[in-house]
Every structure is written in structure tokens, then in C-alpha cells.
User: Fold these one by one.
Assistant:
Number 1:
Amino acid sequence: MKTKLLLLLVLISSISTNAQQTLTLEDCYTLAAKNYPISKQTELIQQKSSYENEILNKGKLPKIDINAQATYQSDVIGFPSTLPGVQPLNKDQYRATLDVNQLLYNGGTIDATAKLKEAQSKTQQQQININLYQLKSRINHYFFSILLLQEKEALLKSKKDLLTSKIKEVQSGVKFGAILPSSEQLLEAEIIKINQQLVEISFENIKLLNNLSKLTFTKIDAETTLIQPLTFSKNTTVTRPEIAFYDLQNEQLEFSKSVISTSNLPKINAFAQAGYGNPGLNMLDNSFQPFYVVGLKANWNVFDWGKTKTDKKVVDISKDIVTSEKETFELNIKMQLEEQDFEIKKLEQLLFSDAEIIQIREKVIKSSDAQLKNGVITSSEYLVELTHLFEAKNSLKAHEVQLAAAKSNYETIQGK
């Protein structure tokens, strides 16, 4: 039972380890969108929008003020003669009031402003989406550059293994005098050259992995296997976040026009004032008295010298500018998609010819291999043909990765 449990734990650990050592392009996109610092602004904008709505809604609640004042006047209202029961007013006067103002109608300014604030928040949120989406291009660059290095490294190691086994054959030929001793040395020098190239690849790979790790905020090292994308869907529909951003900008400008329209509508407020002072409302009663006042107040700016009309014209011009920017962006995207489409077709043609070249080079190297064993050609001549073969294989792998990169770039430009 313990043995079975131990084997199960080892298997789970192995599966977990393998899962951690593989990474797809979509994984990188998801990690970057989730962990990149600017993504934190999403929640902050939502909180900001919530507080702004709360502030606007409080504008519909009664406004309550407490006021108090004490004054001394150089003169007061007087009477030409003394009247019975009427005392002269004091020059020092006192008043404390509780004032309540309730908005009844303001032309819908608060509601229009609330919609404008909501549109502004959506626009800000979409800008974050754009910034996060733009990371995809950088991720594509690092991801496929690493894949290209990994393919090149694998080919170099394969070439090194082949040369190592070939040295053993040459050593046997040298021993029996069929091959010159210099042939072995040339092969050893080529292996040293390959080792140098592997060192260069190793350092370049570490640099690219480090950059990709920083973008995705996850540990990616040389042990991580990057999975090359296999699926590709090609269509002309553009769904870039910038398109939605331009639409939201126009929507925001339209809401701002609504706010402008409400600025000249009448405003109606109800008010009430309760107070205690000396004198009260009766100026002839020279004593502390309670008092109150209630009423309605209306305000209507019937003529603003065409300011509202001009403000709307400014908004319309701003909308035209945004529309122009959107059309320019769509045109540039269309051109980029066409260029990427040509790149894909070119690489597909190159891959077809790569396969043909490799078939020919493999036949040549078989012949050169037999000639080297029999001492007909030197190891230098053999290395020339071997290099040609691995250059062809390297071109094939490079074009495969470049094709995958071109397809991913096409989808990124498209907005997928």
C-alpha cells in the first residue's frame, strides 16, 4: 500500500513538473494581462466611477446649512416721532438660522452628468485594454525569438553529435593510414566552433527568457518548453480594442453635448429657513423672536450669447477628429494585414523549397560520407557539404518558426 502511494505521489509530482515546464503563447498573453501593473487600474477606475456616481446622487439630496451672525450697525431705521409700544431698534443684532434647500428640477443635469462620467470610465477602461493588448506584440517577439534559438540549438547539438561519431570513424581511418591525421583535427576544430555557437545561444536565450519573464511576471528559464502555436484562423474582420476605444470616445462626446444642453434649462429649488434672532422678521419688535420662511426659487438663463451653440460645435468637431483617427487606424491595420498575409505566403513557398533542398543535401552528404571513409575526399570537403546540409535544415526550422510568428502577428494585428 505504501509503495503504491509513493508511486502515485511521484506520478503527480512528475505531472506537475511537466506542466510547469511547458508554456504556450496564450499562457503568456493571459499572465501578462493578469499581472502587468497597469491591469490594477481596472479596479481603481471602477471604484472611482462608483464614488463619482455617489457624489452626483447626493446632489439630489437636501442641502442643510446652519448659519449664525452677530453685527453692530452704525445706524438703524428710525421714526420721526415716538410711537406708543414701539422701541428704537438696537444697533447690535443677532441671528441664527437653519437653511434647507431641495433641488426639484435642474433640467436633468445630474442624470446627464452621471451618464457622461460612466462613459468616461468606460473610455479609460478601454485605454487600459489597449495598453495590455499592445503587450502581445512584445510577447510575440520574445516568444518566437526563443523558439528560433531553441531550434538552432537543437540542430547544432545534432551536428555536434554527428561530428563526434565521425571523429571516431576518422580516428580508425588514420590508424590504418587511409585518412590523413589533419582530418581529425579539422573535425575537432569544428566541434569547438559549435561549442562557441552554443554558448552564444545560451546567453542570448537567457536574456530573452528574462525579458519574457518580466512581461508575464512568472519564472521562465531554460528548462521551460515553449509550445509553438498550431492553429491559425484567417479572416478580414478587425476586432482591435482601439476600434471600441474610438467608438467610446464618440459616445462620451455625445453625452457631453447632453450636459451642455441642460445648462440653459430652468432650475427650480424649494427652500426653507428657520431661525432665531433679534430682531426677527418683524423689524419693529426689538427682541429675540423665532421665525421661518419657506418658498420656491426658479432660475433660467434665457440668453447666453450663443455659448451653448458654440460649445456644441466644438464637440461636433471633436467627434469628427475622433472619426478621422478611427478611419486612419483602420486603414493602417488593413495595410498591415495585407503585408503580413504576403509574408505568410512567402514563407509557405520557402518551406516547400527548403524540403527539396534538404533531400538533395542529404543525398550529397551520404556520398561525401562514403568518400571520406575511403579517403577520397578530405574532412574539409566533407565539412563543407555537412555545413550545407545543416544550413538547409536551419533554414527550414527558421522558416517554420517565422511562419508561426507571422500567423500569430496576423492574429494580433487583427485583434484576435
Note: Residues 23-70+92-414 form a domain with the Outer membrane efflux proteins (OEP) fold (CATH 1.20.1600.10).
Number 2:
Amino acid sequence: MVIDLGATAREGAVHPSGADHERPTRRPPGTWRHPLTVALDPPGTSATTSTTTGLVGLAALTSIGAGAIHAAAIGVHSEHRPAVVAFTAVAAFQLAWGVLALVRGNRLVAVLGLLIGTGALAGWALAKVSGIPFVAGLDQAEPIQTADGLAAGLALTSVLALGSALWPEHDARLRLKAPLPLMAVGVSVLTVFGMVTAGSHAHAAGDGHGSHGTVAADHHGDETGAGDHVEDASAATVPYDPTKPIDLSGVEGVTPEQQAAAENIIAVTLHGLPQWADPAHAEANGFHSIGDGFTGTEHFVNEAHMDDDVILDPDVPESLVYDTSGGGRRLVAAMYMLKRGTPLEQAPDLGGNLMQWHTHDNLCYNADGKVRGITDASGACPAGLVKPVETPMIHVWLEPHPCGPFAALEGIAGGRIPDGEEVLCDHAHGD
């Protein structure tokens, strides 16, 4: 008897034993040789019922963990909307991809996860090295902290797992096989710990972000009562940005009342001072230039406002400060002044170490109220020029300043401060 061996491969062929034999299954064209599945169970096993975790499964769990930590960090950056949007987007992508990979771990999903994980790691590295310039709140470099370090570690694990799974020469014998519940518990522990520590994340502030900074001057520090609560200098500080909520916390020696007073002065000024943005409008209402625009900063003063009893009011400011460095005049600050002749020592202590009044007793004016010189070694002005009476004044800036929102100008324009004090430079709230 002749047996056709090729008949076993055809439908209906009879095995020599006489038993029917099923037609062998064939792999559809284009099918990946080693399908990426959450588990390495036999084909057809549901991922949701799997008891072992493959590389894509590990990547999914760690991506979910990283996303959860990023979600927990959203509230810590609530004062910076761009940072909130960035954290929300990263968290959403990592969480959504992790869930998708647990349900459908194919090659396309794996490639998508690799892109998401790599992007998250690149953003994290940029934020730590130089800051992300186009995301407010993340635009200054920060040190690595526990929460973001864990999130980055989980994202890196996800990327490495996916890279291994997608490697062309990947051998099925080297695939990860670990109990799914054990892996889930391990990642969950790290995730919960990262979420808890995210609540204590100290983000960028002050000079270089993350520095808490103290004020060089101890302005009226002895006047703070022993029973007054004083701000903790170790509290995180926020750089002054007029486009964001005002927060002057974190300066040593400042009571809550002084902080509130200083913040209120800034808020009122930001709201009311822009009405004087047009120099022509200011001149039409009694202001005139003192002729110092060649320095890059020009002051307009109002003699009537300097003699009234109103202070720190943007509707009737004593002096306006314009930036002339660009060729025009851009309103950048108010220079509020007390009534002419008020001794510097009698300036009100409203903001404590946040605010420092100064006077100009070294400038000499002509009869038209223009600055035309400075005093000599004996404190006298040249013939034909006069020195104005002592008048305490303070700046309130409409834009960020390296020395904070109440910074005086530098050099001769900085004026004289109370004896025994140092020039205030509020690095904690400087830009």
C-alpha cells in the first residue's frame, strides 16, 4: 500500500492509523511573531484574567504609577496655570495609556507608550537641568525631590520595559514572568509614597527658585512685639509676578499683618496706576518730568500731590516712573512719597522687612524742577541749583524686579536709607 504523506496537510485526509486529523492552523500574513500581551499565557487568554505579568504589563503598571504621582502634584503648582495644564496632560496620557495597555497590549499600543514615556522623561530632565522656558511655574531649574524622582523612575522603567519588548531580537525565553498581583502591589506602594510626598514638594521660588532667601535689611525689626507671629523664613517663596496672585510670604521678621498690608499696596497699585500709562495724560494732569530720562528711567512728579495728606494712592501718586531704555516711555512703577519735609525716621512701618523707604538728599534741581547735578562732598549744591527738602519715598513696581516689588533704583538714584539699615534687595521675591 502506498501512503500519500502530503495528504495529511489537506482537508479530509486520513491518517495511516485511520483516525481523522485536523487541518494544521496557519499564521495570518503580517502577524508579529511574538505578540505583545500583558501576560505570557497561551494565545486567547484574556489579559484581565492573567496571573502573570509580561514586559508590556510592567510598563502599564509603572506608567499608571507615574501618572498618579503627576496628578497628585497638580495642586502643589496651582498658582501657575501653565504648570497645572502641563501636569494634567502628562498625568492623563500616562494613566490612559497604562489602562489601555492592560486591556490591549499590542505592538501599536507599545510604540505609543514608548513615545509617551520618553516625552515625559525628556520634560522632566529639562525641568531639572534648565527649566522649561515656555511653562510658567516650571521655567526655573529645580533640584530632584522624592516625588518627581519616583515619577521619573517609574516612567524610566516603563520605557525600558517597552524598549525590551519591542527589540527585534527579543527572545521569548527572556520575557518577564512575574505574578501580576505582586507586581501591582509593589508599584502601588511606590506610587502611594510618591503621591504623599508630592504634597510637600517645594517648587521654584526667589533667586534661582527653591531658595527661601532673607532680606538684607532688618527694617524696624525691633518694633515687632514679642507676642506677634512672625513668618517662617523657611517657608517656600514665590517670585513677584504682577500677572499672578500676589504672595509675599517667606520673609523673616514679617508678621501676617505686614505681609497683608504690603500685598494690598501692590494690588491697589496694579489696578489703578495704569491710568497714567500715557505721559501726555499725566502732563495734562499736573505731572512734569525731572529730566532724568537719559539714565534709562524717567520720573514725573506732581507738586500738588506731594503736598496733600494722601499716600500710597495710585489715583493721586506723587511720582510716576517710566522706562526710557527702549526710546519711548513705558510706565513701570509708582514712586509714592510722603508729605514734603517728613523726616525719614517717621516713615510708616507698613510692610516691615518687605518695604524700605528712602530719600534723595544728594540731587540738585534748577528752578524748573529738573535734576542738573549732585551735591559736593560737603552736601551742598552748585551755585544756581537747590537741594529739595527731605521727603521719604518708596517704589511699587508694575513688573518683576530683581530686588522685589518695592526695590529702589541703584547707584545715586538709590537714595539714602535709615541709619543702621542695609539696602533692601528682596531676592526671595525677585525675578
Note: The beta strands are 52-53, 178-179, 287-289, 297-302, 319-323, 330-337, 363-365, 371-374, 393-397.
Number 3:
Amino acid sequence: MQKILYAYPEGSSYDELLTAAGKPRAVAKALLEHFEKLGPEALRQRQETADTAIRAMGITFTVYSEAGNIDRSWPFDIVPRTLSAREWTQIEAGLRQRLKALNHFIDDIYNEQRVLDDNVFPREILEGSRNFRAACRGVHPRFGAWANICGSDLVRDADGTVYVLEDNLRVPSGVSYMLENRAIMKRLFPEIFAMCSILPVDDYPAQLASMLADLSPRPSDKPVIAVLTPGIYNSAYFEHSYLAQQMGAYLAEGTDFLVDSEDRVFLRTISGLLQVDVIYRRVDDDFLDPEVFRDDSVIGVSGLMRAWKRGTVAIANAPGTGVADDKVVYAFVPEFIRYYLKEEPILPNVPTYLCLRDADREYVLAHLDELVVKPANESGGYGMLIGPRASVEERQRFAERIREDPRNYIAQPTLSLSTAPTLIGDHLEPRHLDLRPFILQAKDSYVTTGGLTRVAMNAGSLVVNSSQGGGSKDTWIVEEDV
């Protein structure tokens, strides 16, 4: 029988399932042994079963292109990514610490601004922020938590170090795919779940609902929670509808709401008007309220900011959280942890050059062929330059952009992202990946056990975003035998 690892090459990257000697890591041993017993044909059939189930369940995402919006089935690989529970305990603590510090920063920026007065964070960076919302000055959300839901992207370098690559604090997406990935794997491989101690992830909707309920400004055993969606053409609409259904919350578009003369938010239902206590918004700030932000928005709720500032409704994530969802601000998070929490960071940042600094900019321009350059406020892998893989012309164009708007660019060394075995045809090949855990914060904090592992399906690619050809894997946090 042909072995599924027969063509697996030794590489310079850290592999999540295999050691440098090509042996299974302790947390992946039972998994890989079982895969070898099943053989290539059985694995190929189970991959086809997974793909069929994804199509049947309508698990999709939308790709925006010049040709129009294209709905595609969620790309999924049946070989999970494994991590030990012991390592995860440390990562989880680091994620809680990070979001706590970020929420202190956001609350400070919109109120006392001590971080500016104490010269911990440069005032000119705030003045150049595209996501600072003056309308949010003076507001204190409940529990001091502005970013109630965060998706932080983690990567592992060749030496095994786990870094935080970025924090997504505005409207982070992907958690529904994490949950569906696990549901599919349980159906495909029930025998492995019976064999291994894999920590569960399916309590996330309950945790999310509980966190949102804690934000309610009205005392009630069952506050009214609504998910505000831009509608069916949004790339994450599947997730909006999925989470609303799982939480027992209302799924509504902007036109379904109204704000009355007392600044209370109501939802139009077939039974009449229903007062809303908490809105889990999946609409960007710019389109949230045409009275305050873009007056041409047709997907927001007119008067919503008045209601939020008056305290009659809670919004998660709060308007204005994007001030910390900025790759330039990212570089200061370790200092925020020291400043606000009086602690040392548990998880490190990737070393980062700020192009607004003269010395950093000169270094970046002289080493564009070695660095990854990112704009401060893009997402989805768009607008970035991977220097070692770019042409001379591409690097020259980026050099001009940096000189024209240095505040808008950071640069980082090109990491050798870790890999994991991925089913390609009848065998396993290494593919680069990252990990997006989800962190909740209100009265208490919560971290998913694992998260959404995103994988670059093309050989050698470092781009894991689904909109650019990436896929996903289930993430297993495995308790090792003592």
C-alpha cells in the first residue's frame, strides 16, 4: 500500500505535524498513524465527502472581482492542524492579555488620552489615523470593552516561535467556518475523536450570546439581541446568518431598524416594534449611521449613534474600535501591555519597521527585496508587497507609494511561515498556514480552543486568504498523555 507521506519533503519551515526528522509530533502521532491505515484512496473519498457536504450545506464565501461578486464553496482540507493543550494555555493567556491592553488603549484614546500625554504613543500617528472617530469622544462602553470580539492572526516562524501578525478589531470574521470545519470533521472521522482528547469549540455561540447579553443596558433575563448585516451580498453573510441562528438572535438589515424620538432602537417585526438592547454589528463604521458618518449609506441605521451615546443600546464591536485595527498601532501593542497592565507581553509581535520614521523608512527602501510591506488599513492580504517574490517594477512602485504616504506603510521581515500536511491528490504535501483564534471580552474574557486555521493551497504561497485562493483546516488542541 502506498503511504500518504511518501512524497513529503523536508523543508526549512517548522512543520506543525512533523518533526525535522520527518517523525510525527506527539500531538499528531495518533492522527497520522490512522491516516496511514486508511490509505490514500480512503482519504481522497473522505475529502470528496467533505466537499459535497460543504456544497449541500451552502457554506460559501464571496469573492469580489472585476467580473462581479462570485459565491464559492468554502475550501476545506481534511488534514487538521494540531497543537498541544500545554502550548495553547500559554497562547490563550497571551491573547487575553493583548485584547485587555487594546481595550484600555481605545478607551484612553477616546477619553483622557494619557497614552499621548505620557509619550507612549505618538500624537502624529493618531492624527493620521483613518479610523479615529471624533464622534466617539467621551463615551465609556460597559466594562470598558470597546472591542468585544477580536480575531488575532498568529503565525509560527522557522524556529518555532509563535508571533501575533495582526489584530482584527472592527468586524472580524471567520468563526462560523471554524465551527463548521469541526462539525464536518466529527462526521468524517468519529473514530479519531473517540481515540484522542481533542478540546471542543462548539460552545462559541453560547459564549458569544452570553457576552452580548452582558452588554445590555436594560436589566432583563433575556435581552433582545440583533445581528446587523449589510445583506446577502456581503462576503460574510453566511456567517451573519449562521451566528444569528445559533444564538437565537434576530438577523436584520439597516432598514429593519428605527430610532425613536427618545433615542431608543426598535426592530420592525411581524408582531410590531420590538426594542433592541444589543446590536452585534457586521457593518463598518463608515456605513453604520448616515447621520454621523457617510450620509449616502443605505445599509446603516439613522440615529444609531445617538442611541449608543445615550446608552439605550449597546453595540459590539463599539464604533471607533478601528483606531486600534491599524498596522501602525499594532507596533505599539507590547508597549500598551507594559503601560496599561504593568506586565511583560506573553506573545511577541513580528519585528516591525514604521515608514513614518526616517531611519526605518530609509532601511525599508534599501531592503524592499527582503521585506513584506503592508498598508496600515487594508485587510484580506490586499495592497501588500512580498519583496522577495516581487518584480523590480513592483518594488519601484511601492517605493513611490511609501515616499508619498509614509504613515500608511509598515514593513516586516519575510517569515518562514510554518507548514502542515495538506491532502493533494493521493498524498500529503506541506502548505503554509496561519491561525485566527477569536477572543471575547466584556465582563469576562473567553478564547476559542484553537481557531480558524487558514492554509495557502498553492505550493510555496504565503497568501492564506480565501479571497486569494486560500483554504482552511480544522484546528485540534490535543491533550497529551502525561
Note: The chain is about 30% helix and 25% strand.
